[in-house]
Design brief:
With about 210 residues, the protein is mainly alpha-helical. The protein has a single domain, classed as Arc Repressor Mutant, subunit A. It has helices at about 10-20, 25-35, 35-50, 55-60, 65-75, 110-145, 165-185, and strands spanning about 25, 50, 80-85, 90-95, 100. A three-stranded antiparallel beta sheet has the order 2-4-3. Strands 1-5 form a two-stranded parallel sheet. The chain is globular, with a radius of gyration of 19 Å. The N and C termini lie far apart (about 45 Å). The relative contact order is 0.13.
Length: about 210
Amino acid sequence: MDENSQQPDDVSDRVEQRHAEDRVLDTGALRALAHPLRVRIYDMLSQYGPQTASSLAEKLGESSGSTSYHLRALAKHDLIREIDDRGTGRERWWERPVGGISFANADAMKTPAGRAATQIVMTEFFRNRNEQLLRFVNDGIQSAGTQWETGTLISTATARLTPQQSKELSTKIMALIDDAVDTYRNQTGEDVRPVTIRADVFPLPDLEGKP
């Protein structure tokens, strides 16, 4: 069967299997991540690959002592890990392990500490994403170069869907993203840059007075 002709159930099964081992962060991990600078460090490792405390400090405008402290805090909960065979005793390299994570921990949301940590993490995560998007819109479209103009998508649309249709659409989008990540995760070469892939599918507030 041609890949483009896959049935919805096939796509759903593939996405479910792909994310079956995603890590759901527990309250301890969420609390460890619940700091604006730690979210930025975690994002930097996710998007740009392995870094040292010094390289992170330079990119984030912080001291290497500060980034080193926060790196160790993240490592205690296995959110990141040291690369043993790279660097020296004074220059340690850190990476984010491959694999998906989820902030949606139902048990964590049952406690005030868990809810507060989740809120901080989600707020900072999306703040960083929105800042990146606005930076690109304001500066990056021209600075990225003409070769990126046709490879960029910033689009918003609205459809009227049932919950099941929304789930099917989300699954199809997730399958496309998974394929791209799995195929190009470690690609190197000329013109290769980290590309952030965003997908938002959620219901708008009901303004029509329906129950």
